[in-house]
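Sanity check record (used in CI):
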Amino acid sequence: MQPMVFPEVDFASALVTDLFALERVRVDFRTEHLDDPLGLELRRLFQGLTSVMSARIEGNRTTVADVVAEARRAAATGQPAADAVREILQLEQATDYMDELAAHGRLSLTHGLIRELHQLAVQGLEREGDEHPGSYRTIPVGIAGVSHVPPAPGSVQADMDQLLEFANKEVPAQHQLLQIALVHHRFVWIHPFANGNGRVSRLLTYAMLSNQGYTSRSAARPLNPTAVFGADRQSYYDHLAGADSLSPEGVLAWAGYVVHGLKDDMDRVSRLAAPRFISEEVVGPSVNAALAAGEVTETDADVIYAVARQGRAKAGDLEDVIKGSPSNRSHRLRRMVESGLLQKMSGPGRYVVSLHRNVLTKHVVHRLNELDMLPAILRD
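Expected output for Fido domain-containing protein:
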């Protein structure tokens, strides 16, 4: 395999401007200490949407509403979710796994991690599975729609050794996003697995962004490359193919595409850093839509909105919203927790709003789309 090297970058180029803008994001993530449960809940929703996007890039057309309904059915019955939904849930599980490793300082870029991510992504799937989850391929493969032929199976281990050596190389800050973009392309170019390479490449890119400080467990909206690649599926494939010759020009164009996409995505959703914006412009209209659809009661809607504005609330904080005795308040709050509209925090009886996998989810997604905060691939 041709050695992995950084292309020459013109200091006056738009790519350098975008790199500086994203470096400011990294500084913000490293210095923020967000204690906003609503923002954290929105982050959890975005991570779920990222998994939907990654599956959609591969042709899975399952809607967000389908995921919510099927995941809740599977949880209630103890039966496996449908195959297309399971593909999405497994990608979400893989992202959660990386977040957990990162939280404990153990997110290391190794063959073991890559194989674990592959196993988590494809295990047990019918349409998009792999007969050998977690194992590099031992057969030749092709990539539909492109002229590039991935290396022979006998080269995969050595090629992946080289890729991981480059991915783990300490480089100056101005090279780190270029390093991430180059690793993504070269991974797909190697195609180390029989199936699931696109999904694993996007998980690996997220892992690298996390290790380099471009994501944050406390940010309402972490930078995530899948939002970039999902903005225009064909453009993603075209830019990947354009770099397949490994020419400096093609590689540089690919890197510019990735970095500019991250910058655009950051600009779209920067407003989500403000708790009041989330409660007033995202949650409020979503609750009203659920109320109009008959999916929540007026009292439930009032409770959700009140808790959203406060961030977290005790039962006593809601006496003006839930009329009647303390027992009546406790009963309603317990019912809302059981239905998934609220979450009860550990400690002295505080409640927070839930936006993930309940009747609000599809309305929140619709509202985020109205605010131009979602890639086109999520539009049903």
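The radius of gyration is 22 Å. If this sentence no longer matches the regenerated tokens, the check is flagged for review.
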